[in-house]
Amino acid sequence: MRPRALQVIPILRIFSIEKAREFYLDYAAFHLDWEHRFEPTAPLYTQVSRDGLVLQLSEHYGDGSPGTHFKVTFEGVRELHAELSAKNYPYWRPGITETFWWTDQLNLLVPFGNRISLCEPKPGGTAN
């Protein structure tokens, strides 16, 4: 069998469980897949997902780095933009950028300084 990557799952650092839930679950409508702590007072490590995008969120020191930016090839950018805009989230009102490499790009700035760019290729374009 030829080696190949099957999925990339970013680990993003969080500093407030409440703010992470407000953004990922309430605003961005991710599904809570699971939560883990080594003991009741230990930092939280959790996984959320939506429409094929899986993220792991961690309170652990050294996991992830604030200021991370990653791109995701995504279908339905304009529909997601309409859904998020209708929520009137007070901390972020993203717009769509039409890039010079022929994608519609929706940038989500998450509460802990990370940025997720959802890129939908237009005909003849590429998200890379």
Could you describe the 3D structure shown?
With 128 residues, this protein is α/β, with parallel strands linked by helices. The protein has a single domain (11-121), classed as 2,3-Dihydroxybiphenyl 1,2-Dioxygenase, domain 1. The protein is built from two helices and eight strands, in the order E-H-E-E-E-E-H-E-E-E. The chain has helices spanning 17-27, 77-85; strands spanning 11-13, 31-36, 45-50, 53-58, 69-73, 96-98, 103-109, 115-121. A four-stranded mixed sheet has the order 1-4-3-2, covered by helices on one side. A four-stranded mixed sheet has the order 5-8-7-6, with helices on one face. The two termini are 26 Å apart.
- Major β-sheet strand ordering: 1-4-3-2
The CATH architecture would be Roll
CATH topology type: 2,3-Dihydroxybiphenyl 1,2-Dioxygenase, domain 1
The low-confidence runs, each spanning 5 or more residues with pLDDT under 50, are: none
Determine the N-to-C terminus distance: 26 Å
Instruction: Tell me the number of strands.
Output: 8
* Helix percentage range: 10-25%
Radius of gyration (CA) equals 16 Å
H-E string: EHEEEEHEEE
Contiguous helical run count: 2
Mean pLDDT: 93
Please give the domain count: 1
Determine the structural class based on helices, strands and strand pairing.
Answer: alpha/beta
Shape: globular
Task: Assign the CATH class.
Answer: Alpha Beta
Into which percentage range does the β-strand content fall?
25-35%
